[in-house]
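## tool: complex_structure
## caller: assistant
## args:
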Amino acid sequence: MRAALAVLLAFALTALLIIAAGKNPLLAYAALVRGAIGSWDRVGVGLNKATPYILTGVGVALCFRAKVINIGGEGQIALGGLAATWMALTFPRIPPIVLPLLALAAGAVAGAGWAAVAAAVRLRRGVHEVLVTLLLNFVGVLIVSEALQGSLGEPGAGFPQSPLLPAATWLPHPLQGNDLHVGILAAVIAILAGHALLWRMPFGFRLRVMGASVPAAVYAGISPPRTFLGVMSLAGALAGLAGGIEVLGVHYRLIDGFSHGFGFNAVAIALLGALNPVAILPAGLFFGFLETGAQAMQRAVGVPTPLVSVIQGLTMVFILSAMGVSARRPRV
Amino acid sequence: MLRMQGISKSFGPVHANRSIDLEIPAGRIVGLLGENGSGKTTLMNVLFGMVAPDAGSIVFKGRPLTGHSPREAIAAGIGMIHQHFMLVPAMTVTENVMLGWEATGRWLRPAAVAARIRGASAAYGLGLEPDARVELLPLGAQQRVEIVKAILRGAELLVLDEPTSSLSPPEIASLLGVLRRLRDEGRSVIFISHKLGEVLEVCDEVIVLRDGQVAGRAEVAGIGRRELAHMMVGRDVGAPIDRVARAPGDERLVVADLAASDAAGVERLRGVSFSVRAGEVLAIVGVDGNGQAELAGTIAGVIAPSRGAVFVDGADVTAGGVAARRAVRLAHVPADRATTGLVAEMTVAENLALRAFDDPPFRRGPWLDADAMSALARERIAEFAIRASGPGTAASTLSGGNQQKIVLARELGGRPGVLVAEQPTRGLDPGATRFVIDQVLTLREAGGAVVYISTELEEALLVADRIGVMYGGRMVGLVRREDVDLSRLGLMMAGALQEHPDAAALYGVRAP
Amino acid sequence: MDSVAELLAASLRIATPLLFAALGGILSERAGVFAVGLEGMMLTGAFAGVIATHALGHAGLGLVASAVGGALLAAIVAIATVRFCADQMVTGLAVNILALGLTSFLLRGLFGRGEAPIIRVTPLAPLPIPALSDIPIVGPLLFRQPALTYVGLALIVAMFVLLHRTRAGLTLRAVGENPTAAFAGGADPLRVRAVAVVSGGALAGIGGAVLSLQQVGTFTDGMTNGRGYLALAAIIVGRWSPAGAFVGCLLFGATDALQLRIQGLRLPVSSYVIQMLPYVVSLAVLAGLGRGAKLPSAIGTPFVRR
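## result:
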């Protein structure tokens, strides 16, 4: 409920901004909604957009539960997409269904590896994971750019991108005439699995104890470093998978900068979903539809798309403040 | 000098102060006596402006004091020495004294302040060195920094909250001397404590708080310990606890040359050796901070020792961490029940399974068995009379005593062979304290071995078969209960006497 | 030798925006509030600086506007974290997102009629100090810098004096180490933290203006591109002291300057790898130094008055 209020407040404040820019907020928001869910086509696009958010958001939420702040989503997604592309281009002779699955798996492994690097720096050298994951984001994205200049690049293209991937690797569209790809299934599975993991499995128990206090975790026989590494790797795998899905399902090639902004959005979604995997579904959908609607809003009414970041940022600030206030409740 | 009327303050469901009236004349040392939870600290925090009261008024030196913060209290002439010192460890004595003191001006003049510190230190016998870093000073000296702060700001009323809890007997004596000197100058002192002996020794007058209300007041000259204790507790103190004399059995816990450092790398435990037999309680006393936490941590597997070994029923568990301890049924009640022993956000059932969640019966294949957890929880709730609505309630809603019961139920419910209990009765009311002691003695009767770490000497004497004294990371004394001489114990606690030899050689065990 | 001196001079110039932001971040962190929002405050300052200079015609007014812009964003952080006890790190991230969107939106919405305009401002020229700049080697390095670089260097000293020689600085440091002790001593930790965060934001905003007004001459979307996080790394590397942070900023400035020059040299190293240099170097330095024990003890912990 708190999340809904925060969103409403953010929209209200942003309306003022729209007015300051000389546009009508009601018209703008109407175009936003139409662009988001105005037709089945739009819904399909929105679901596609929401998929990587949901996947990454579940991972980040699990990290937050253990009080681990992982904002490396952008780098992990980028490298996940890179690995998937590499797999798809390097082994074109692997049979159709197996190849995309292998490519996605490669993406997950790459993402997990990148997250594990951050975790190792944190564990071995004591550098806070916020800083490490942030800096590694930049490095990861640059690695992708570098790869696109070299072996994976498409020569003669005006823009750094890979060649079109073989059709055998493209994620199938279950609905005729609709852009929706099967990646949404992965998102739903991630949500259910995340929920089960957190509440019904020993690993989730470990996360929750560690998030409460590290001394309690040690006392309970939990190894904080191992749990830290585990949850970071898991989150990285989910992000890497999201990257692979973006490449195989939406772009059908690796495009420079495709991962831009995903990491931060995942943090926002995790917060919106109150760190509960199930609630991340509506939160991720909200963000996905917000972005698809924003482009329509710009075309129809002329309100620039960066407005979406304003809404996201404001929403986060409000939710964080509300969480801070409720954490202050006196304990007996 | 001070009049407080009708002070009331509640924290949620807890009524810390219920309409308290208090009057302090000038030039007196007034003791504020009461058990844990009687409301003494809250009342003084209200006086000092750190906590805002729900109702009531304060008049100090003829002027009212309302809605104020410590800044106004200090300006009016009230100085407070808190139980947990309000000092910045990384800064020097001079910097701490200058902190928040407007008289020092916009630009710091440390030399001038240092001179004043030296002056006051000489006048009152405080022995302070202005350029020393506070974190390197012993606790007694840190307390004197607090005192000099109050004196330099012209405090006419000093409030000391449990000032002797971290001091050794010689330091206590010197503190009381300083207080008498302040009183003779015409200042007043409020001396908050739960220790009868000290209150009777230094105070002119004593006010007793119980359950948030004033239970009585008297001139110290005209009252005795039993009456005071009666006022504090509301009933005749302590029916003696029945203890069955037991011939101890085999050695269950053997600790050999155990040493460990704290998080900063400072060696806090310097080689301790002892053994505890079946049916025996070894109480370990000493002022907090002399290595007890590290001793408990290494025995319980929460801290890795830098050298030494721990054996339980013959098995070497030194390197095995918590898992090895659980395998040999060693239970551990940690000192910090609120954040280490319990996870407040989790349910009672989850807390009761906190250490065993990864094993059957709580774990079935890849899943946690919630039904098994609930079933066990119901058993324990009944067995230990825990006041909770059910296994699914959050632990944070329970009272302190019931939270401690959860910890005990978890640790004792599995019928452990060895128990390590750290300050198990800290912050508990007498009824809950009695419950804890009963449980410990029951375990003793069943043949368990108990290491009972406590700062309360009287409590230790109640449960122990033998008493060990920790000072400076070493065991400086180990005596049977029948042979206890309180004054010698006091000296040992202050580090003035060492009679326990290094027994590591006796066990012939040394870690590589 | 000449090119080394030239490289150093360039490093100092490039490090200046980082320096302002780092000094601002020190104020915030030593008072106990993580300064993750520096990136957004710099960006806001960069934007406000360019817009104000363009609209009002005077770079000095632009600087003032940049300080105000950074301070306003910092005020959001202050209210959320100090008053409402929101998580400091994530709030910093949130305002960075907010600043990104807000500046890009306002750029288009207020000036470009929906598109991204290009606003050109004459970059501030270097200000050679007459006699001193002729000293061989040291002269061009130190004394032919733009005006704001001199201000930045002076600010290092000023910050040191503030923190260690004034009562306000003592109070600020105490609030960052043990706010309850500061409170018991008569200070108001909430007010101290809020003031520290907002003034830090103003400084970071000026740092952004140094970037947009002094170095580039225009505002582009997200132009700070991670400099705020580099400033944060510099603070940690410099152990939360002004002089130390300066060394960190200089280091990052040097890698950036190096990167620009290597690209011109056509070495067989890809330009992307070179662009990675600042980030990799900061990671290496941070990892090499580990987390020092001199982190302000109470950082990240909200102070609640009961």
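## assistant note: The mean pLDDT of chain C is 85. Residues 2-30 of chain C form the longest helix (29 residues). Handing back to user.
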